[in-house]
From TrEMBL:
Name used for this protein in its record: WRP73 protein
Annotated Gene Ontology cellular component terms: microtubule organizing center; MWP complex
Pfam families per record: WD40
SUPFAM superfamilies: Tricorn protease domain 2
Domain of life: Eukaryota
C-alpha cells in the first residue's frame, strides 16, 4: 500500500470523477481538480463563497459547486476552463442541488421546499416541480437515467410524481399510504420504487414504474420503525435496517421476508469468525536509535500499531445503552451496504458502535464480525470485488476480504484522523478524508 502526501480540505468535500481520471477537492471557496494518477493540479477555480457541496456531472465534463448560504450554484467546465455558469436562486434560497443523469440539467431545491427548479445548461430553459417534500431522500433517479421520482407533500398528504428526464414531462402521479414519507429509492434495475415511512411508523411500500402498489411490508407496530434500507445490486433483495437492531431481507418475487439478521451484544455463533482489533507496542531495535531520532522513527515510536486477533466465541461486544429521552437515539441499524457481487452484506448496529457485521447472502448466515477499538465512522465496499474498507476516526485504515483482514497505519506526521473514505471506480485506490486534510491510498492488486 502506498500513500500520497496530505492535501488541505474543507467540509469533507473530495470526489473522484465518474470516469476515474480526476479528483476534485475544496479548500474554503477554492475548487481544486487534480489528475488521479499524478495528483498534479489540472484546474483551480475560485467560487464566490465557501463551497458547501460539490458534484460531478455523469460524463465528468462539468462540476457543480453549491453555496447554500448565498443561494448560488456555480458550474465549471473541465474542457473549457474559461467557461462557467452561475445560477442564483435569489430570495427563494437554496437547500439542495444535484445533477440530472444526462449531466446537462441541474435540480435546485429552494428554501422551505417550495419547489424544485430544473435548469438546462444547453437551452437555458427552466422547469419547475412543485410541492417537493422536505425529507431525507426525496429525489431518486433510476440507474439508467430515464426517470426521476420526487416525493411531494400537498394538502397534508404524501404523493410521488415520476417524471421522464428527457423532457421533464410528468409520467405518473399517485398518493402513498404513508403517514410521513421519509425516503424513496429505486431498485438498481429501475423496475421497483421503495418508499418508506418516518421512524414513528414501520411501513415500506413497493411501487412499479406505472404507480401500481406491488406490496407493503410492516414488521411490527407501536415502536420506532425503519432506520435505513439498501437494495442488492441485482435488485433481488431489499435489506431493511430497523430501530430494533435487526435487518430484514425481502425477496423480489413475493416481497415477503425471507430472513432477519439479529445483532446481539454477545456473538455465540460458532460458524462465524470474530476478528478483534488489538493494540501492539512498536518494537524498535536499539541499534537504530539515534538522538535526536529521525522523523520516520519518531513517528513510529509514538504511534500505536494494531492488528487483528481471532476471538473464541462467545464474544461480548461493547454495548452502548441509548439515551431514551433524546431525539435520534443511538440505536438500530444505521449503516448497511451490499458488496458489488451480491455475496455479502455489511451492517452496523448503532448500539454496538465498534462492530461491523458481515453476512453471507448466499447462505443467509453471519460470516464475520469485526470488532474495532474505536467507533466505526464509515465503511464502503470496493466497487470491483468483495473487499470492505472502514475507518474509525484514527490514523488507520482497515480492510477486510474473505481472505482475511488487515489494519494499516497511514504514515503521516501530525494528527490525521480519518472520518470518511471513498473508493476509486477501479478499486485500485481510495481517498481518505479527515476534517482538514485528505490523502490518496494506492493498493496493489494482490493485497488482502
Amino acid at each position: 500500500m502506498n500513500f500520497s502526501e496530505l492535501f488541505r480540505l474543507s467540509g469533507l468535500l473530495s470526489r473522484f470523477s465518474p470516469d476515474g481520471k480526476c479528483l476534485a477537492s475544496c479548500v474554503q471557496y477554492r475548487l481544486v481538480v487534480r489528475d488521479v494518477s499524478t495528483l498534479q493540479i489540472l484546474q483551480l477555480y475560485t467560487c464566490l463563497d465557501q463551497i458547501q457541496y460539490i458534484e460531478w456531472s455523469s460524463d465528468s465534463l462539468f462540476i457543480l459547486c453549491a453555496m447554500y448560504k448565498r443561494g448560488i450554484v456555480q458550474v465549471w467546465s473541465l474542457e473549457q476552463p474559461d467557461w462557467h455558469c452561475k445560477i442564483d436562486e435569489g430570495s427563494a434560497g437554496l437547500v439542495a442541488s444535484c445533477w440530472s443523469p444526462d449531466g446537462r440539467h441541474i435540480l435546485n431545491t429552494t428554501e422551505f421546499h417550495l419547489r424544485i427548479t430544473v435548469w438546462s445548461l444547453c437551452t437555458k430553459s427552466v422547469s419547475y416541480i412543485k410541492y417537493p417534500k422536505a425529507c431525507q431522500q426525496g429525489i431518486a433517479f433510476t440507474k439508467d437515467g430515464r426517470y426521476v421520482a420526487v416525493a411531494e407533500r400537498r394538502d397534508c398528504k404524501d404523493f410521488i410524481s415520476i417524471f421522464v428526464c428527457s423532457d421533464w414531462q410528468l409520467l405518473r402521479h399517485f398518493d402513498t399510504e404513508t403517514q410521513d414519507l421519509f425516503g424513496i429509492e429505486w431498485a438498481p434495475n429501475g423496475c421497483v420504487l421503495a418508499a418508506w415511512d418516518a421512524c414513528l411508523e414501520y411501513k415500506i411500500l413497493l411501487y412499479s414504474l406505472d404507480g401500481r402498489m406491488l406490496s407493503t411490508y410492516r414488521a411490527y407496530e407501536w415502536s420506532l420503525g425503519i432506520k435505513s434500507i439498501a437494495w442488492s445490486p441485482s435488485s433481488q433483495f431489499l435489506a431493511i435496517g430497523s430501530y430494533d437492531g435487526k435487518v430484514r431481507i425481502l425477496n423480489h418475487v413475493t416481497w415477503k421476508k425471507i430472513t432477519e439478521f439479529e445483532h446481539p451484544a454477545t456473538v455465540d455463533n460458532t460458524k462465524a469468525v470474530v476478528y478483534r482489533e488489538v493494540e501492539k507496542s512498536p518494537s524498535v531495535e536499539t541499534e537504530r536509535l539515534s538522538f535526536p531520532p529521525t522523523r520516520a522513527l519518531a513517528s513510529s515510536l509514538f504511534s500505536t500499531q494494531s492488528k487483528y486477533d481471532i476471538s473464541q466465541v462467545p464474544v461480548s461486544l461493547q454495548y452502548v445503552k441509548p439515551v431514551a429521552d433524546r431525539a435520534n437515539p443511538k440505536m438500530g441499524i444505521g449503516m448497511l451496504a451490499f458488496s458489488p457481487d451480491n455475496c455479502f452484506l455489511a451492517t452496523k448496529n448503532d448500539n454496538i458502535p465498534n462492530a461491523v457485521w458481515i453476512w453471507d447472502i448466499q447462505k443467509l448466515k453471519l460470516f464475520v464480525v469485526l470488532e474495532q477499538l474505536c467507533a466505526i465512522q464509515s465503511f464502503q465496499w470496493d466497487p470491483r470485488q468483495p473487499r470492505l474498507a472502514l475507518c474509525t476516526g484514527n490514523s488507520k485504515v482497515y480492510l477486510w476480504s474473505p481472505a482475511g483482514c488487515v489494519s494499516v497505519q497511514v504514515p503521516m506526521e501530525g494528527d490525521f484522523q480519518i472520518v470518511s473514505l471513498s473508493w476509486h471506480s477501479s478499486g485500485d485506490s481510495m481517498v481518505l478524508l479527515s476534517k482538514d486534510n485528505f490523502c490518496v491510498c494506492y493498493l496493489e492488486r494482490e493485497e488482502v
